[in-house]
Amino acid sequence: MTVFRQENVDDYYDTGEELGSGQFAVVKKCREKSTGLQYAAKFIKKRRTKSSRRGVSREDIEREVGILKEIQHPNVITLHEVYENKTDVILILELVAGGELFDFLAEKESLTEEEATEFLKQILNGVYYLHSLQIAHFDLKPENIMLLDRNVPKPRIKIIDFGLAHKIDFGNEFKNIFGTPEFVAPEIVNYEPLGLEADMWSIGVITYILLSGASPFLGDTKQETLANVSAVNYEFEEEYFSNTSALAKDFIRRLLVKDPKKRMTIQDSLQHPWIKPKDTQQALSRKASAVNMEKFKKFAARKKWKQSVRLISLCQRLSRSFLSRSNMSVARSDDTLDEEDSFVMKAIIHAINDDNVPGLQHLLGSLSNYDVNQPNKHGTPPLLIAAGCGNIQILQLLIKRGSRIDIQDKGGSNAIYWASRHGHVDTLKFLNENKCPLDVKDKSGETALHVAARYGHADVVQLLCSFGSNPNFQDKEEETPLHCAAWHGYYAVAKALCEAGCNVNIKNREGETPLLTASARGYHDIVECLSEHGADLNATDKDGHIALHLAVRRCQMEVIQRLISQGCCVDFQDRHGNTPLHVACKDGNVPIVVALCEANCNVDLPNKYGRTPLHLAANNGILDVVRYLCLSGANVEALTLDGKTAEDLAKSEQHEHVAGLLARLRKDTHRGLFIQQLRPTQNLQPRIKLKLFGHSGSGKTTLVESLKCGLLRSFFRRRRPRLSSTNSTRFPPSPLASKPAVSVSINNLYPGCENVSVRSRSMMFEPGLTKGMLEVFGAPAHHPHCSADDQSTKAIDIQNAYLNGVGDFSVWEFSGNPVYFCCYDYFAANDPTSIHVIVFSLEEPYEIQLNQVIFWLSFLKSLVPVEEPIAFGGKLKNPLRVVLVATHADIMNVPRPAGGEFGYDKDISLLKEIRNRFGNDLHISNKLFVLDAGASGSKDMKVLRNHLQEIRSQIVSVCPPMTHLCEKIISTLPSWRKLNGPNQLMSLQQFVYDVQDQLNPLASEADLRHIAQQLHSTGEINIMQSETVQDVLLLDPRWLCTNVLGKLLSVETPRALHHYRGRYTMEDVQRLVPDSDVEELLQILDAMDICARDLSSGTMVDIPALIKTDNLHRSWTDEEDEVRVYGGVRIVPVEHLTPFPCGIFHKVQVNLCRWIHQQRSVETPRALHHYRGRYTMEDVQRLVPDSDVEELLQLSQGAGESVPVDPPAECGGRRGHPLVGERLQDCQPRRGAAGAPGQPRPGHRGSGARSGDRKDQVLPPAGLGV
């Protein structure tokens, strides 16, 4: 294989415009750097693989190079050097710049045969030289007969393009099909052996055309042309050859012979009388005969026309390619460019936009005299469009075709500007290397750096600055690139410009620096960057505003904080004398006023009209701002220039609330006292909450009493009589006990569930679930018709107590009776400063102990919403503090050494299981406290006391210290409770108003919200939040949690059960809580999802937790199964074997009741039943108009782990109502999201066929495609 020079050709030659192109080659003008001589560089595209059809094979390239190296003749082109790169072989050839011979002859007015033979003789001499070397050209045609220089008296002919040339080996037969159809010899068409004779045929065709202007074999199609060649079908028509000599015709006739052996050779041609006359007569006949110039000119014109047609076709292909790639209609191509642009310009721009380098190269190669610098209608030259597109190859192509690197559009922008606008870094590097000017300004005065900054191209800005572009140039608005970056908020651009050393304090026409611009628009990161690079923080605009003024006016809080932290002058006055505080007070922006005051601004600085910030706030009636200014020490007696105080201005504008506040603050002593009340003291929070959870009989009350006992009292303390340890005593049998008995634990899951089979009530999906697991996921409860335990806790028992050796607590004991569970979600986990104690009895088997703890911890976890940030491993930032206490260690004879602690053998395994399951969601103590709840002085109790005291100290240390106002409110609360009458409910807004009106007028709403939260933490009040009512303060938590809920939900008050099935009148509720405002109370209970008010009836209330009916008026029967189809929804927790939060079952019922009330008409009766764990709504068919279908709703409470909701529908050839099923699937998750935000839950559709059999086939969401 021949090795060509591997150096970069650009290192030795400067490449210029394109001279021509072929299928796989492009010829460009070039200049040798060392000598300055001009050559032609032929770039031949190499074929990448042998199977590829694009490019020229290595063998053919080496053959052409070998032939060119061998020849050296005046009428044949010569080779200078050969280079090679990865894609091309570059032949440095003699520059033939005179154009085609036929084009030159067509310009003449007349031409004799004698003159024609002079040119033909040069062709013959060149061919003679080639044939003497056994080289056949095989592609002789007018396009390959060139003039070295057309501007000399006797131009010299040059034969070019040896791409098809072969050296003939007469010993080996050579066949091939190639060449141009008009000029190929018959042996090529017939695929016969080839030799030097083929060139002679081509010379005959060239001579025929030269003399007549007609092509001898040209047909309408390529196939017809080849057929004419094969048949030698030609003639000398009189129209074309009327003035042609007989010798000329003879010359042609001897060459156009089909048999190569009978065809004239090159030697014969040179000796022919027409070329070399034998006598004077022959010479005179040549002079007398003339070339048919009229036809010859038409032939030349026709050839150019064909080239134009090919050019138009090429332009159309380029445009169609671009439009198709751009998903645009070809029929709409006129819309893509203006009509005033030529089709060539359209094709060029389309090729540029389509990155079609070969197409553009081919197009420009076909345009010998096209000026690529001419712009389109919009005044944009192709080079700038290419710079905007970022294709370096196209830029190189355009530059080599003559595009000026410094060309501009009609707006004055150059290529650097266009590339910068579109963010093309590599293109900018290329343009800079080619000496494209950097800091050219357009008509608006912008440079490339301006446009790069405006479009946010930080990398372009850095590059331009590294090139040496001036970052301080100003446009016609006197703005620098930094102004552009500050206006649009491009931090990276601003940082790059600052690091490049730009002047950060240059002002634009409005007098604004970049800092003022960024401050007004709120870009705090740019403000910080500018200040770090020396920006003048107190620079003013034409109105005297500094950056802080503008940031305050636009309410840019983060910018304000940055400026203050960087040392901006907070008391700077504008031309009207207003400081930033004046602006904030006039606008009433409290957070900004607070920030400025905390920055030690002067609150009494007057403006030019003598008005202080307090005057402006009072004049505009902005009470919160007035209050804070007074708290910050503003002078309430300051006078304006017209002698008015802030109080006078407030009165004149009829802002009575502001005037009243200022009137109360006239005396400095009063104001000083109010201010002192709001300042934190050294006193720690005196009390936190201790919340106890556990199943009934676990010993919660006894534990509290023991913790309260001191050392002396414990000796005289009598033990509280405890319940019998037998299940038969603690949980009496149901009146329906005539049915076959099931597990005691199953009986005690929920009221009315005794007669439901274990399978139908388990509602679990997991195979292999044991009975023990089922027993414990429901909280044990008394049957509704059994006698109540007088000693059991009612609802939530609340007391303030001092726990001996621990400290003051607000003790909240949550009853284990499930009837109260529906209200726990509003009190159990609403305070992260509480200690949560889970109490369980060692009398139960270990499996039940474990799952009782899981039940309560799952409940607490479900109440805590997952909030950011989440720590490593998914741990919550502020988890609830939980302590586990096991009681009845004495009854179970747990071993204990003398004077030591109880040693429970399963404490480690239980604690490990619990911590593994809840460790990321709750802060569970590392120790399980095993004790006798009644032994107040035992070692175990002391260890528990010490642990509680340690946790209390940790919590109190992070709680905010008390203020005098908080202590004042605590002392005032008893009188407010007394004045509030039967209801201890107060809105937060009313609480704020009362404190401001009665105790401290300077206390803001934010201050009082903070104090209310502190009172909530101490247990003095309880803050209740709901989606349906405003924030409400429960002034006395005992009133609602113990008295109201304890009576309303207690099984001991049958006098209120005048109406059956949990549906009561307002009078029934009033009799339960006679001292309360029922209307207001029911609003709170409705917001807590304890009851559902029937607004259609006006006086009826549904409390599902109190459903007491034992029998159904209708139930499913075998006969009904024939006419019904069944379906339903089951809502289950996501986590494996996780019980639902306690009380969620009743909340689902409440939501369904609300929906029923909304859907049905006023006169429609409705009954809600409870029987065997099933609830029915017999009037569901009335929910859908024009329907007589009676539907049954089944709500069966499983073992705590799922809530199935089953709506069967009558099957009468129509589908059941989807409205009911959709509502059932929707209601529980929506209520659960509010009541148990920490527990996700999917909905599962029940199988209709299986539900009819009362079997538990359930389809999970994945099986339903949901």
From TrEMBL:
Region of interest (Disordered), residue spans: 1198-1266
Cofactor(s) required, per the database record: Mg(2+)
Top EC class for this record: transferase
Catalytic activity: L-threonyl-[protein] + ATP = O-phospho-L-threonyl-[protein] + ADP + H(+); L-seryl-[protein] + ATP = O-phospho-L-seryl-[protein] + ADP + H(+)
GO biological process: apoptotic process
Organism domain of life: Eukaryota
SUPFAM superfamilies: Ankyrin repeat, P-loop containing nucleoside triphosphate hydrolases, Protein kinase-like (PK-like)
Domain Roc: 681-955
GO cellular component assignments: cytoplasm
Alphabetical keyword list: ANK repeat, Apoptosis, ATP-binding, Kinase, Nucleotide-binding, Phosphoprotein, Repeat, Serine/threonine-protein kinase, Transferase
Residue ranges that the Swiss-Prot or TrEMBL entry lists as coiled coil: none
Binding annotation for ATP: K46
A Pfam family that the UniProt record links to this protein: Ank
Molecular function per GO: ATP binding; GTP binding; protein serine/threonine kinase activity
Residues annotated as domain Protein kinase: 13-275
ANK repeat coordinates: 378-410, 444-476, 477-509, 510-542, 543-575, 576-608, 609-641
Entry's EC annotation: 2.7.11.1
Family: Belongs to the protein kinase superfamily. CAMK Ser/Thr protein kinase family. DAP kinase subfamily.
Protein name: non-specific serine/threonine protein kinase
Organism: Sus scrofa
